[in-house]
Amino acid sequence: MGKKYNVKDYYCKHTTRCSTEGRKKSKRFVGHNVLKADAWDKVTGDAVYPDDISFDDMLHIKVKRAVHPHAVLKNIDISKALKVSGVVDIITAEDIPEVRQYGLIVRDQPVLVGVGEKMRYLGDALAVVVAESKEAAKKARDLIKVKVEELEVITDPFRAMEDDAPSIHPDGNILITHHLDKGDVEKGFANSDIIVENKYQTQFIDQLPMQNESGAAFYDERKGVVNIWASTQWLHDIQADVAQSLRLAKNQVRIIQPTIGGAFGKKEDVSVHIHLAIAAIRTGRPVKFTYTREESMITQSKRHPITIYAKTGVSKDGYLQAWETKFIGDTGAYASSGPAVVHKGMYHCTGPYNCENVRGVSHAVYTNNTFCGAMRGFGTTQAAFAYESQIDIIAHKLGMDPAEFRKQNIYEIGSTTPNGQQLNHSVNARETIESAVELSGWKGGNSK
Amino acid sequence: MKISLTVNGQLREVEITPYTRLLDLLREDLGLTGTKEGCGKGECGACTVIMDGELVASCLVPAPQADGSEVLTIEGLGSRDNLHPIQESFVETGAVQCGFCIPGMILASKKLLDENPHPAEEEIRLGLSGNICRCTGYAKIIDAVMMAAEKMDGRESDQDG
Questions:
Q1: Where residue A99 sits, what CATH number does that domain have?
Q2: Best residue in B91, B92, B110, B140 to probe A by mutation, most A CBs within 10 Å?
Q3: Residues 260 to 279 of A: which have CB under 8 A from any B CB?
Q4: Does A399 reside within a domain?
Q5: CA-CA distance, A374 to A388, in Å (whole number)?
Q6: Are B94 and A36 a contacting pair at CB < 8 A?
Q7: Residues of B with CB below 8 A from A264's CB?
Q8: Complex ipTM
Q9: Is the separation of the CB atoms in B146 and B152 below 8 Å?
Q10: Which of A250, A279, A299 is the last residue of a domain?
């Protein structure tokens, strides 16, 4: 039988961190509306976003992208493109043999795909065109001729995990597997009166910040430093990744953050940075590169589509007894933040509800889709779709009010998450449910 | 080709190609980078300016079409030291986050308030429906327009016609 999981009182007696007394408020800021220091520049149009940066003598970049989501590059012909008036440089992989792959967690992403190498999604870069104007760069880019040998395109992670599926990367298509084990799920299911088992599927979502990926760069030859003004959410990680990719010391790469027009996780990854740096170093002139919206959609990260299996056991009186789950995350062509996102989602498989016995496995799987990375919630929004649906379905089967069912299983001070973290302070889940009930006008009852 | 147009009260002559967009003319030829490009397809409203009294998506207006017109961009509405009441209200209500949509939002608000000085919330939502914001959830932007309507109450509309 279930027992009420409440150790709040114990923790309030034995820890100093969950004092019920109100904290001292800062007189200047906390609890007051503070005018934002950058608002004036933003309401007058004075704020400088990356694409607002201009230098005299500045060149413009356009990138030739993959022509197929999974193919070997057999030949790339830039001869016609080079004849376009205004073209200064066209860079292909053979021009930069020393440049290394990059990536936030796993360095699996090529700066340019070379002849004999694979393009793994439609955003892979094949050539960087540098020209006096955007129009010239675009015209030349469209004149680049490419020959490829097409491979099977894998758009479904379940196909990717089959034994006979071609490997998108050398080490196979399962990028990473994580396990979760808490308590004893077998015992938990044995103690359950009702077991509910379901499969949930979420979809790709673009973070869609208003400002597309954009930046400008200038190489200071005297100091040997490349200066990159570009939108990013990780200045230091991007600096380190650009430096290792170009085999420069970190102090030879300066990342300068202009005003950033939204990100929501999409700007954690390298986008324009390395192409800008290479073009700036090779030409010795300032360069600018701004993605179009289509390019941003095709090339940069998405929220992972995750297939979630959830098997939940509950006692007659409405206490969760066991929760078993499986997360299959489509991480697309490159790892980005995928290894962290998919297993973080799994760690949240029970949501804010107490369950002593939890077991799970998660796989982040490569496909030929656009790569997936960080987006607000970092895997937990996908998990929420599954666990909140489970909770509603179980409440319905029990004939309980779903709000009451939630409240009697809700996290409190002292609760332990599936990955074993004990929550010692600031747990407001109950208040959240109560507010939601009040604000929505929920009258209680069940849908039976 | 050469065209002339009045931008923020100043007569400007600009050498353009037939396929230059009004957005490029403003940003690249005149250096008025307060007007933003979000989608390039007239969907998001970041490039909104007021042309001959009408709200337009400047990414969809061929520059030759702007010959002889009068254009107002965010730079022409007010400056840091002399904010327009709508700009003031956006600052005071906390309606600005990343700020990329704000120049378009403010110009759409101006057009709305010029025509309807006391809009209801629904009318504000409709008036700003061509402008997407991804940060704020719109609530404070609507507060800002409400506050601006109060501030501008009793003042003569500063738009002719």
A1: 3.90.1170.50
A2: B91
A3: 260-264
A4: yes
A5: 22
A6: yes
A7: 134
A8: 0.96
A9: no
A10: A299
Q: How many CB pairs below 8 Å do chains A and B form together?
A: 101
Q: Which residue of A has its CA nearest to B36?
A: A211
Global pTM value: 0.92
pLDDT one-digit tens code per residue, B10-47: 999 999 999 999 999 999 999 999 999 999 999 999 99
Residue with tokens 């009166």: A193
Contact criterion met (CB below 8 Å) for A137 and A129: yes
Q: How many domains does chain A have?
A: 2
Task: With CB atoms and an 8 Å threshold, state whether B96 touches A39.
Answer: yes
User: Given CB atoms, is A292 within the 8 Å cutoff of chain B?
Assistant: yes
CB count in 10 Å sphere of residue A15: 13
- State the angle between helix axes of B102-115 and B85-92 in degrees (0 to 180), rounded to the nearest 10: 120
Give, in degrees to the nearest 5, the angle at Cα A327 between A209 and A408.
90
Looking at residue A5, what is its pLDDT?
Answer: 40
Q: Is A200 on the interface with B (CB under 8 A)?
A: no
Distance CA B48, CA B55 (A): 7
> Looking at CA atoms only, how far is residue B77 from chain A in angstroms?
8
Give CA–CA dist A49/A266, Å, rounded: 16
| A295 plus A313 within the same structural domain | no
Closest alpha carbon within chain A to B20 = A135
CA distances from B28 to A211, B16, B32, B56 (A): 17, 11, 7, 18
Claim to verify: residue A72 and residue A105 sit in the same structural domain = yes
Write the DSSP string, B70-106: EEE-GGGT-BTTB--HHHHHHHHTT--SS-TTHHHHH
What is the residue-wise DSSP string for A98-137? TPPPB-SSS--B-SSPPTTSEE-STT-EEEEEEESSHHHH
CATH number of the domain residue A172 falls in: 3.30.365.10
By CA distance, what is B27's nearest residue in A?
A: A52
Q: Provide the pairing of β-strand B2-7 with B70-72.
A: parallel
Assess whether pLDDT exceeds 60 at residue A448. Answer: no
- Measured between CB atoms, does A249 come within 8 Å of chain B? no
> Do B104 and B46 contact (CB within 8 A), yes or no?
yes
User: What's residue A30's pLDDT?
Assistant: 78
Closest CA–CA distance from residue A289 to any residue of chain B (Å) = 14
Q: Identity (one letter) of the amino acid at B141?
A: I
Please judge whether B99 and A48 are an interchain contact, meaning their C-beta atoms are less than 8 angstroms apart.
Answer: no
Shortest CA gap B72–chain A (Å): 13
Mutate which: A33, A38, A44, A233, vs B, most B CBs within 10 A: A44
Where helices occur in A25-100 by DSSP H, the ranges are 39-44, 79-82
What structural domains does chain B harbor? 2-76 (3.10.20.30), 85-152 (1.10.150.120)
**Domain annotation covers residue A20:** no
Q: Cα separation of A148 and A125, whole Å?
A: 14
Contact B98/A262, CB-based, under 8 Å?
Answer: yes
Helix axes B139-152, B102-115, angle to 10 degrees: 40
